[in-house]
Amino acid sequence: MPRYFTLSEAEELLPTIRSRLESAISSKAELAAIDAEFQEISARISMAGGSEINLAQAARRKFERASLMKSIEGAIEEIQSTGCVVKDLDIGLLDFPALLGGDEVYLCWKLGEPKIEWWHHIDDGFAGRRRIGDEFGGSGPAMRPN
Fold first, then answer.
1. What sign has the CA pseudo-torsion 119, 121, 127, 128?
2. Which residues contact 33 (CB under 8 A, 6 or more apart)?
3. Residues 50-91: pLDDT tens digits?
4. Within a 10 A sphere around the Cβ of 114, how many other Cβ atoms?
5. Contact partners, residue 100, CB within 8 Å, separation at least 6
6. Is the pTM higher than 0.85?
7. Which pLDDT score, from 0 to 100, does residue 145 have?
């Protein structure tokens, strides 16, 4: 059974989650740079029918890539272990399961937003975000027992 958050509970987690999310996004950018290097090497080999490769450097970058993958996976697992859901690592989009009138919804937060100001029905996704208003009664949705 998923954990359901009140608005205040979700916002209390933001500082910790924000730092882990920023770390994962930074690692993903480094990973993309390494992947671009490997694609360039592969293209050179393909075009020239072979190419001189610095094997030690390639092995080091391959190790760095594996380390970055572990870092990203660890950050995502740590974030999701709180009960929130990483929806889009590229833009830093997170959802916090909540209840509204007995229906499961998501409190929605994106990196760069000062606080959680949006929610949406589970099937609506980011495009269906609605600004939080009185429906969460200031303290957010009711918590269903875990």
1. negative
2. none
3. 667 778 888 899 999 999 999 999 999 999 999 999 999 999
4. 7
5. 119, 135, 136, 141
6. no
7. 34
What's the total number of domains in the chain? 1
Structure tokens at 13: 């987690």
Residue 77: CB atoms within 10 A of its CB come to: 11
Please say whether the beta carbons of 92 and 112 come within 8 A: yes
**Confidence (pLDDT) at 141:** 42
142 — pLDDT class (breaks 50, 70, 90)? very low
- Is residue 65 within 8 A of residue 35, CB to CB? The reply is yes
Domain assignment of residue 43, given as a range: 1-146
Q: Do the Cβ atoms of 98 and 4 come closer than 8 Å?
A: yes
> Other CB atoms closer than 10 Å to residue 17's CB: what's the count?
23
Answer for the pair 98, 107: CB distance below 8 angstroms, yes or no: yes
At 76 the three-state DSSP class reads: helix
∠ at Cα 39 (34, 49), nearest 5°?
140
Contact call for residues 109 and 118 (beta carbons, < 8 A): yes
